[in-house]
Amino acid sequence: MKIVKLDNFTKSQKPWEVEGVEWREVKLKEIVEDIKSGFALSKQKRRKIDANNGIPQLRPYNIANWNKINFDELTYIPENMQGIDEYFIENGDVLFNNTNSIELVGRAVVYKELDGNYTYSNHITRIRVKKQIITPDFLSWYLNFLWNKGFFYLKATKWIGQAGISNKKLLSIKIPLPFRNGKPDLETQKKIVEYIEANFSRIDAILEKKKKELEQLDELWESVLEQAFKPKEGEEWREVRLGDLVKEKPRYGLTTKAKDKGKFVFLRITDIDDQGEIKNNNFKFVDLDESQKAKYDIRKGDLLLARSGSVGNFFIAFQDYPNWIYASYLIRFRLDISKVHLMFVRYYLSSQYFKKWVSFQKRPGAQPNINAKEYSSFKIPIPFRNNQPDIEKQKEIANYLDSVYEKIKALKEKIQNQITQLEEMKESILDEVFNHDEAK
């Protein structure tokens, strides 16, 4: 595997190391001047307030990975709320995610010179440090180091899909600090932060290029799909309704309660991704008698389409699945393979043609949906010859798309591996800085 290298970056570079520095562990409560959790405001009240009549409130998802604030999807609170002054964030405050999904708890960021007044929700703890002992940036980076190591996952109190770190637990955390001549060494802390941020900045620049390359490959693939489904000179193509390409009427899936164990795999929308692939083997199961099971079986040539929620997600069976049945939010279209080549259909449903149709067709609501009649009306362009669907031409197009897809997939995997290496390099930088034997 090719390693992505950064110019002038080596693990042996430690510009902060100077003679006379020792490391000591200090509890957070000893270096905090003030700590305060935010406040809650109901969703109903937040819906009535926007940037025109309120002030922004940071929430856990606004604290992004690696000491950054994400300003997408800000929520707002009334400007005239009683006691709001207590929750204004000041320059240099460290914001810590104390409660949310397990992967978000423990992320931290330093608030720096933002325009306007910002507040923070009850899922965030604001930490003001004693700046004669520790710099806010040093603390924030160390908390992110612990988050990345899974420290807060182990320490957190866990609920279903949620986790939390109390202020008491937070204050008991030990922070390794550099000391010189018996006093906290702020200069070394600053050099460490500069070292981290300079290398992270260079890594992020490369990551941005790599992510752009992935986007360009996706655009290339969409262009290939678009061209593949355009008739060439002399070819006859016809738009055929999906409902005219099936051997029997569409059937909605089974409504029943799934179990962790059972006779038949119970395929649900959540088991299928937006590329028509099975996500994993974390299936649920059901027990049915054979006569009932036969109504909901999955055979080669079956196209399953999501009718609610993740509308447009699909699965095509390229073989029989004798021990599988499908759930109620899926609709089965039993394709006539004498008319359509299965991979041809799959590639077309992966294209922007189908995605745009779904976006236009789905009915809005808490759960967008498309029913069997609407799906049946979707038109697929099919090559014809001698007044019949040209299966060989469909196969030829599918084979061509197979070859292009494999090449693009290989390139994307290579780039994704490089992205993974770059992210791991960030982790190694924090390991290098914060793993101190002297402080253990």
Describe the protein in words.
- This protein has 2 domains: 160 residues, DNA methylase specificity domains (Adenine-n6-DNA-methyltransferase TaqI, Chain A, domain 2); 166 residues, Adenine-n6-DNA-methyltransferase TaqI, Chain A, domain 2, CATH 3.90.220.
- Helix 2 crosses helix 10 and helix 5 runs antiparallel to helix 10.
- The N terminus is likely disordered.
- Strand 21 and strand 22 form a beta hairpin.
- It contains 10 helices and 26 strands.
- A 4-stranded antiparallel sheet has the order 2-11-7-9, with helices on one face. Strands 17-24-21-22 form a 4-stranded antiparallel sheet, with helices on one face. A 4-stranded mixed sheet has the order 19-18-23-20, with no helix packed on it.
- It is α+β, with helices and mostly antiparallel strands.
- The protein is elongated, with a radius of gyration of 28 Å.
Compact description:
The chain contains 10 helices and 26 strands. The protein is an alpha+beta fold and 440 residues long. The chain has 2 domains: 22-181, DNA methylase specificity domains (Adenine-n6-DNA-methyltransferase TaqI, Chain A, domain 2); 228-393, Adenine-n6-DNA-methyltransferase TaqI, Chain A, domain 2 (Alpha-Beta Complex).
